[in-house]
């Protein structure tokens, strides 16, 4: 099975045998990859009961929970890595969720859609309406993305939280691109953080 | 592996293991009984001599004995998990879950279900005869959930099963599964706990006390010494069952099933007959229950559940009960279960996370409250099947 590019980047950069928490693990594709290919001890959290059921059915350890509140269930530094993929922008308080992420994991991976991508900027500037693009396909009134964020916003947030950006990866059209002008060019970004 | 017809299996087991004998009950299908060869130590400090465990088995034990699944029953359940009940003639209590090709697949697993001690379907309980030849009645020692599990572990020893593929239980069965995981962590690779809790809440204890008082207020209870008398405390036991039965359902479920509809009549009777369908239903549940259950067993088992608090057994911290466990856990709750609500399951999940255990948790949506675990639920089937795979 082919992983989504941001998940593939995360999977490729996790040390084998690590303890990993995948928050918003969906159907468990990344967890399954980490367990089978890297011998990781992966745990997941997912809000949707139907997705949790699919994870359990494939032998994964996944807890149905809301990342906004239930990360408090885990002890400090319980994991080598805490992963938050495509979920930060849906959080009630992304700043507090980032704190929790860096509390339960020694390191954290965060991936999100970049609202400052040129298509988004263009749609807003010339269309005058909230963008509906390839990366953000849902209208403003029904999207789960309640806290849109840009690459530069995220760097600022990490800095204000005293988190160090270890590495970053950027994607456009499902392919990895270079870092220059990423805030214009990247549809998606992945950051590895530590504190 | 050679398939053995179900009916022949108890006899085969009898032949295989020393200390087993067949219990003939009301000329019904035989359920084998294991006599625990040594006295069973109890949490109260007492010993239970010559304790017996009645059990049923389904499927075939693999040569390496690695395919055994222990299913633990609830308060008023018994060993007739997937075979007809000898008194009521009704199908086994979890026949929709256990059987060939079912989520707990007896083509693959050797499934064991035993009557807990304290109960009344063949295992040692207050109705059993003490060494003086008279029923124990209230002389039977007060037992705990952990004592029940001690009995189950002794049975596993007797069957030669060192490590279970899984221990599975709903409600009080889930308490036993958790107790086994906490106290005999090497005995089960997987622990599946459905609609259960790690401790009895004040509300849980309160409802049980209502039931016990109903039994003990029945003059026929006679301080528990009714076994040789004509009258049994059936009225008290029926009331206990009626009160408990309400806690197994949801308000929405009751409303949907009965509403305010009247029973076989056009108008209210302005009397105290069962005017409403829900009254008639509860009376039927209560009286049916007295035909298959012993009132003293109800006292003893509800007491065991009320004493249940795994954290208390382990220095007050639930996570410590599961420290170092290698088992995989799956905890399932139902959104309309107000007897053991999701918060209780989350409390267990929290502790398992703190202990670093591999745990899955899912809250399933079902209209029927606590009883949902016994009813048709496709998602539950998939979770059970997937977790045991």
Structure, explained:
The complex is a heterodimer of chains A (195) and B (389). Chain A has 195 residues and is an alpha/beta fold. Helix content of chain A is 32%, strand content 26%. Chain A is built from seven helices and eight strands. Chain A has an eight-stranded mixed sheet, sandwiched between helices. In chain B, 34% of the residues lie in helices and 15% in strands. Chain B contains twelve helices and 13 strands. In chain B, the strands form three sheets. Chain B has a nine-stranded mixed sheet, with helices on both faces. A two-stranded antiparallel ribbon of chain B has the order 3-4. A two-stranded parallel sheet of chain B has the order 7-8. The model of chain B is unreliable at 1-28 (pLDDT under 50). Chains A and B meet through helix 3 and strand 3 of A and helix 11, strand 13 and helix 12 of B.
Set out the fold topology:
The complex is a heterodimer of chains A (195) and B (389).
Chain A: H1 5-12, E1 19-23, H2 29-38, E2 41-46, H3 49-57, E3 61-64, E4 79-85, H4 94-104, E5 105-113, H5 118-127, H6 151-160, E6 164-172, E7 175-177, H7 182-185, E8 188-194
Parallel strand pairs in A: 1-2, 1-4, 2-3, 4-5
Antiparallel strand pairs in A: 5-8, 6-7, 6-8
Chain B: H1 9-16, E1 20-23, E2 31-35, E3 40-41, E4 47-48, E5 52-58, E6 68-72, E7 98-99, E8 104-105, E9 110-114, H2 145-159, E10 166-170, H3 172-183, E11 190-194, H4 202-216, H5 234-248, H6 251-257, H7 277-290, H8 295-307, H9 310-313, H10 318-321, E12 328-334, H11 342-354, E13 358-364, H12 378-388
Parallel strand pairs in B: 6-9, 6-10, 7-8, 10-11, 11-12, 12-13
Antiparallel strand pairs in B: 1-2, 2-5, 3-4, 5-9
Helix pairs in contact in B: 2-3, 4-5, 4-8, 5-7
């Amino acid at each position: 099975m082919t992983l989504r590019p941001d998940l593939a980047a995360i999977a490729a950069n996790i040390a084998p045998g690590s303890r990993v928490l995948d928050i918003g693990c969906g159907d468990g594709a990344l967890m399954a990859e980490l367990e089978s290919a890297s011998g990781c001890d992966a745990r997941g959290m997912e809000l949707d009961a139907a997705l949790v059921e699919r994870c359990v059915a494939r032998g994964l350890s996944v807890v149905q929970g809301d990342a906004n509140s239930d990360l408090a269930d885990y002890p400090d530094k319980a994991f080598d890595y805490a992963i938050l993929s495509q979920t930060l922008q849906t959080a009630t308080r992304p700043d507090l969720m980032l704190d929790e992420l860096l509390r339960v994991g020694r390191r954290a991976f965060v991936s999100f859609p970049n609202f400052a991508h040129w298509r988004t900027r263009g749609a807003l500037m010339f269309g005058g309406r909230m963008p509906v693009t390839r990366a953000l396909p849902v209208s403003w009134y029904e999207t789960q993305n309640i806290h849109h964020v840009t690459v530069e916003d995220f760097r600022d947030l990490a800095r204000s939280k005293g988190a160090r950006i270890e590495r970053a990866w950027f994607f456009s059209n499902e392919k990895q691109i270079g870092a220059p002008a990423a805030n214009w060019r990247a549809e998606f970004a992945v950051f590895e953080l530590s504190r | 592996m050679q398939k053995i017809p179900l009916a022949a299996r108890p006899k085969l087991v009898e032949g295989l293991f020393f200390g087993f004998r067949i219990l003939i009950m009301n000329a019904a299908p035989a359920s084998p009984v294991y006599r625990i060869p040594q006295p069973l130590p109890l949490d109260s400090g007492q010993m239970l001599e010559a304790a017996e465990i009645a059990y049923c088995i389904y499927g075939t034990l693999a040569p390496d004995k690695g395919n055994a699944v222990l299913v633990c029953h609830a308060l008023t359940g018994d060993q007739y998990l997937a075979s007809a009940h000898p008194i009521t003639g009704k199908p086994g209590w979890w026949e929709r879950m256990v059987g060939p090709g079912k989520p707990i697949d007896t083509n693959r697993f050797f499934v064991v279900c035993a009557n807990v001690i304290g109960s009344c379907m063949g295992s040692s309980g207050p109705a059993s005869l003490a060494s003086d030849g008279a029923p124990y009645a209230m002389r039977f020692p007060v037992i705990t959930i952990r004592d029940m599990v001690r009995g189950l572990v002794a049975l596993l020893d007797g069957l030669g099963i060192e490590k279970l593929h899984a221990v599975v239980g709903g409600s009080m069965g889930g308490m036993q599964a958790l107790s086994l995981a906490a106290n005999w962590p090497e005995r089960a690779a997987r622990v599946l706990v459905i609609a259960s809790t790690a401790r009895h809440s004040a509300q849980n204890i309160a409802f049980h006390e209502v039931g016990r008082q109903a039994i003990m207020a029945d003059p026929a209870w006679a301080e528990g010494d009714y076994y040789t008398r004509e009258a049994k405390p059936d009225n008290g036991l029926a009331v206990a069952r009626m009160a408990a039965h309400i806690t197994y359902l949801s308000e929405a479920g009751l409303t949907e099933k009965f509403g305010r509809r009247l029973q076989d009549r056009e108008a209210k009777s302005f009397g105290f007959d069962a005017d409403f369908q829900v009254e008639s239903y509860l009376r039927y549940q209560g009286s049916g229950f007295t035909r298959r259950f012993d009132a003293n067993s109800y006292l003893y088992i509800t007491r065991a559940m009320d004493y249940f608090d795994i954290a208390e057994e382990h220095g007050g911290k639930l996570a410590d009960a599961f420290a170092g466990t290698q088992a995989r856990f799956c905890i399932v709750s139902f959104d309309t279960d107000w007897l053991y609500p999701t918060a209780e399951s989350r409390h267990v999940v929290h502790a398992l996370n703190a202990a670093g255990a591999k745990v899955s948790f899912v809250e399933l949506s079902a209209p029927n409250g606590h009883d949902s675990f016994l009813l048709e639920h496709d998602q539950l089937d998939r979770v059970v099947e997937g977790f045991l795979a």
